Amino acid sequence: MATIAAPPIVGSRLAGDLMLAALAPMSWGTTYVVTTTLLPADRPLLAATMRALPAGLVLLAATRRLPTGSWWWKSAVLGMLNFGAFFPLLFFAAYRLPGGVAATIGSVQPLVVALLSMLVLSARPARAVLYAALAGTGGVALLTLTAEARLDPLGIAAMLAATSLMGTAIVLAKKWGRPESPLVMTGWQLTVGGLVIAPLTLAVEGLPTALTVPNLLGFAYLGVFGTAIAYALWFRGIDRLAPTSVSLLGLTNPLVATVAGLVVLGQTLNGWQIAGFALALGALVAGQAFARKP
Questions:
Q1: How far apart are CA 70 and CA 74, in angstroms?
Q2: Contact call for residues 177 and 64 (beta carbons, < 8 A)
Q3: Residues 252-264, buried b or exposed e (16+ Cβ, 10 A)?
């Protein structure tokens, strides 16, 4: 029997959803450059608080919508997974691991999501998607790892935990759906996460004594573009795309971080790193071709 091709509008809509969702991890790929060039040094919890809480409160004020019913606790769970627990673990790992090790560990998220999708959503990803996820991790490893990479056990554990938490959030969000627009739900979750991180910041780091104009610009960029807008697009993508498709888009994070390092910091790539970049990019494109919406 002949296969009936999907109408062009379906393909164009899917491509649009993928492109919008990809803007989120692409913006996260600029976080390292912004942090190292604009933010105050050695203040990871302050950076996490400033990314989450102001953006969450602004979105709450703008949307004027609060959770109802079970979405009070569901928003709290997702807010902790995506921000309240994820951000501190991420920054803890970043201070104990070289960026290449952290990026490689983070790139296993599609495999975590694939496993959780089978357990929670009863959705079996295509075998080609799993191969693409493995290839993507290999490509990121070639791109970012160096022979001098330190393998700190606590840092590895923190990064694995952070990656697993975000993967769990993707699957739970897919299972629960959404009662409001992605922007509204972003505000709920950012506020929960920010309110959890803020007391920890005060206890561990204290209040900043002074903030420069570049510091404020860096916080504003991360809060507006790297958090509020990025996560709204990310949650929109979770709603419209297959979980493994969304998680594979995370490969754009280290790819953009590499390009940003080349352009802004004047870094260079050797032959193995160029091969890794090509492998990760190819895995991303191939994985999207085989990912299916459950």
A1: 6
A2: no
A3: bbbbbbbbbbeee
Question: How do residues 124-162 score in pLDDT, each as one tens digit?
Answer: 877 888 888 888 888 888 877 665 556 778 888 888 899
3 state SS of 97: coil
Report whether 168 contacts 37 (CB < 8 A). Answer: no
| Secondary structure (3-state) at 3 | coil
Residue position matching structure tokens 């104009």: 213
Does the pTM surpass 0.70? The reply is yes
- Token pair for 69: 């019913």
Give the C-alpha separation, 95 to 91, whole Å: 6
CB atoms < 10 A from the CB of 122, how many?
Answer: 8
121 token code pair? 């959503």
Cβ distance 38 to 217 under 8 Å?
yes
Phi, psi of 145 (to 5 degrees): -80, 145
CA dihedral over 188, 190, 193, 196, signed as positive or negative: negative
> Based on the number of CB atoms within 10 Å of its own CB, is 275 exposed (0-12), middle (13-18) or buried (19 or more)?
middle
- Six-digit token string for 72: 């009070």
Cβ proximity of 238 and 246 under 8 Å: yes
Report DSSP letters for 24-87, one per residue.
HHHHHTTHHHHHHHHSPTT-HHHHHHHHHHHHHHHHHHHH-----TTHHHHHHHHHIIIIITHH
